[in-house]
Protein 1
Amino acid sequence: MENDQLKTQHLKPNKVLKKFLQHGPISPQFIADSISKHSSKTNIGAHTIFLGQVRKDKIETNEVQAIEYSAYEEMAEQEIHKLREEAISKYQLSCLHIHHSLGNVNAGEISLFVFVSAPHRTNVFTACSDVVEQIKNKVPIWGKEILANGTHIWKTNKTNG
């Protein structure tokens, strides 16, 4: 996709695309503000949210303290934009917001926020699940688990949960 095409959204011409990737964790206040902004949209009958939180997994004798996310940013932004537009069309969504962290995100903090809105509930559940799986499987974002002893392990995505 050419750079000029990325600068405008398919569904809303002349609007500059928002970035999907952000440095650091996604704050509870950002999530609350996102929800609050939708209360005036009376054509929406259902919302669902997926929050990906960094777990304090135990790996052998160490615990995960954080995940350091990195990405091929330009390609990741393009891929998220593409899957977002496809999901809006496929599931007849009113809104679809996706935010993914880059950099360090500590255990207990949010690294992925997917917020789906539509006139009816069935669409939001199916769309949200599909979008999260596509992000995990298609978008070039990688996580390095930082362990308590200072070592790190590259994280592999598990599609079963």
Note: The chain has one domain: 18-154.
Protein 2
Amino acid sequence: MTREAANSLLKTLEEPPEYAVIILITSNESKLLATIKSRCMKINFMPISDEQIINYLKQNNLYTNITEAMIKNCNRKYRKGT
């Protein structure tokens, strides 16, 4: 993120519209400015199993046109280290 983009984001975080919920997702927190991080709540997400993904999709009628390869890619980043 450029310095200009970071400053623009910071202004939005400081004065968000009433209707907005802003969710920032990053794989490298150290690249965010400290002033941006100080205005955010950090939530760590843990990977979920392929079985949990499949069950959720089936329960919500979202399983059509989903392949096993797509599901396996959902947690691919975390599986590389194991």
Note: The chain has two domains: 3-37, 50-80.
